[in-house]
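Question (not urgent): is this output format expected?
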Amino acid sequence: MAGDPFSIKGVEFYGEWKAAKKPHRLPRHKNTGLEIVLVSKGELRWEVENKEVELRADTLFYTLPWQEHGGVEEMQPSCEISYLCLTLAKRYAKPQCRFQFHRIFGFTPAEERVISSALTGCRVQAIPASSEAAWLFTHFFKIIREPVPLWQSRARDTIKLMIAHLAGVVTTRRNSESRIVEAERRVRVFAKILPARHAEPWTLQSMSEACRLGRTQFALLLKKHTGDTPVTYLNRIRLREAQRLLHQSTRSITEIALAVGFNSSQYFATVFKEFTDMDARSFRAQAAVYGLKGSIPLKVGHHGL
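Got this back:
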């Protein structure tokens, strides 16, 4: 528990909450070190720098020394958590990109740069706890409860593994998020340039290759960005151009269909009907009377990938 008489150099405090009928008190506070928390059972509603964070069971969570945190409601429901706060080389009252641990942990400057960069650069400080994280916490508290010769060294070694594990998971998660952000950026750029290149013979494969993505990921991201599947989005763009040509030119419907990128007038006719509830000839007649602004808008499509 937090009042354990066995102190560990390099550790400011540590403890466990066990499930209890009475709620736990968790006022807002700041620590002088790095706090790592494992939520084993139950849920907590915390705030970090006035932003609410929901901590569910099997969640690993950490707070940096300059971050004020505590319960959204001061009294927290029954839950089970393990926590420890690690001493840093000095007090960091303001946000930092780099920080150093107590020298007793033996991290090299290069290791500290990697760890601190990972932890300060992560947007989400609550991550799913792996079986390794759960084991490390369990092992740490087993050492604390059953002190034997060199127990402090063993406890610190376990903590060092825990820090390295946390930094590794956070780095992997951040790299994954970066790849997703980059993929979304490529899809947004593609969606912007497609209207100017709508007449090209696009397929799902060629569109995804243009974004350097797999077909499934490309299709999911494009739908997230536009609300349409790739085929629907492409057809919508082509039909807008076809509507403009039907209104402003005297070209035949077949010529227009091929000009905007459809490979046959039959497919063009089918898609035009699905999107507008009329055929191209009727649309041209209506546009001649009412103008393009008065034309039937394109409906939300329902085509597959």
